[in-house]
Amino acid sequence: MADKTLAPLRLGVAGLGRAFSVMLPTFMQHPAVALVAAADTRPEARKRFAEEFSATAYKSVGDMCGDATIDAVYVATPHQFHREHATLAAQAGKHLLIEKPMAPSVEDCAAIVEAARKSNVHIIVGHSHAFDPPVRHLRELIESGSFGKVRMIHALNYTDYLYRPRRPEELDTSKGGGAIFNQAAHHVDVVRLIAGAAANNVRAIAGAWDKARPTEGAYVALMTFANGAFASLVYNGYGHFDSDELEGWIGEMGQAKPSHAASRPRFRTLDEEAAFKDARNYGGRDFVLPAAPPVAHQHFGTLLVSCDGADLRAVPDGVMIYQNGAARLDPLRAPKIPRGEVIDELYDAAINGKKALHDSAWGMATVEILTAILKSSREGRDVGIGGASR
């Protein structure tokens, strides 16, 4: 836990889009961080940010990185710009919080890591759902030794991901779009944390079934790990079945939601869709903060783990333990600050010099596995995982 009695970490934001909008409640509530600057191409977003936080708003990330009041930069621009913007921030001596995935390629990740090494700054990659308290608690239960070794992990999620409003690059896999880079990043982080070992191999099949949205909207992947554990990852973002039904209608953000609320809106043009999304992003005319605090922890669908002595299932209010013919809940209190663990990890690394879990090596290993999933699907074969995941 970050020492919140000290001065807060002064944060600059690169990109005031959807990722920032989702993290905004965390930034506003967490005492260990203060928003002091931002960069965005949209004047309406810059105007609102400057007024709301009495802060400086810049037209370019490069200009913002020259601001001496900034301790760290949150890189939340589109994925294809992560390398450029993270490198600029690192060269300016700023610590880095990089939105997942770290970048669209291992080569881009390596360039970011080298820039950070030269400037001696820390990197945290997140948010991903490996930060979620039920997932972390499940890992702690495994580490206690009470349930034996992890043998098998099953992670499943069905959403309307592909039909949420998208910019053109979000439907272009080459620019980091699609379900593999955006959604499998969560799955891969979670199962790596639970397995507790390096990934060895992946075999995957991805689906791209809508010609109007020509990127991966679904995938199934089988991963093996150095300790003998294996995991299945199942994702469908085509908006029919909603697996939040299996989580008691608690949504991904920990909010109560109506049953089967997913929709598949259609837009006449990509420009119309982008404008619709911009209007709902920070600074847009239709932007609104969440009306109510979450009622439970965030999640990424069903996570079921088989150990020698029990099956464990992460749920929005804790971990279910299935053992000896009985089931019981190991409960967790509802979160006071959503995604507060992200700021704790950033603060502890940047201010206290503590080694982070979701550091640059972790982020690069996840990207290596994501690219292996794509390669396996395209080539129809098993793909070995190299050094980045070890």
Description:
By secondary structure, the protein is α/β, with parallel strands linked by helices. It is 32% helix and 22% strand. It has 10 helices and 15 strands. Strands 14-13-12-11-7-10-9-8-15 form a 9-stranded mixed β-sheet. A hairpin with a 4-residue loop joins strand 9 and strand 10. Helix 5 (106-119) packs antiparallel against helix 10 (360-379) and helix 6 packs parallel to helix 7 (178-195).
Number of E strands: 15
Instruction: Give the percentage of residues in beta strands.
Output: 15-25%
Question: Alpha-carbon distance between the termini?
Answer: 26 Å
Mean pLDDT: 94
Class by SSE composition: alpha/beta
Low-confidence stretches: none
Instruction: Trace the largest sheet across and list its strands.
Output: 14-13-12-11-7-10-9-8-15
Choose one word for the global shape.
globular
Question: Main attributes?
Answer:
390 residues, alpha/beta, 9-stranded mixed sheet, 6-stranded parallel sheet, 22% strand
What is the fold's blueprint, element by element?
Elements: E1 9-14, H1 18-29, E2 33-39, H2 43-53, E3 56-58, H3 61-65, E4 72-75, H4 82-91, E5 95-98, H5 106-119, E6 123-125, H6 133-143, E7 150-158, H7 178-195, E8 199-207, E9 218-225, E10 230-236, H8 270-280, E11 302-307, E12 311-315, E13 318-323, E14 326-331, H9 340-350, H10 360-379, E15 383-384
Parallel strand pairs: 1-2, 1-4, 2-3, 4-5, 5-6, 7-10
Antiparallel strand pairs: 7-11, 8-9, 8-15, 9-10, 11-12, 12-13, 13-14
Helix pairs in contact: 4-5, 5-10, 6-7, 7-10
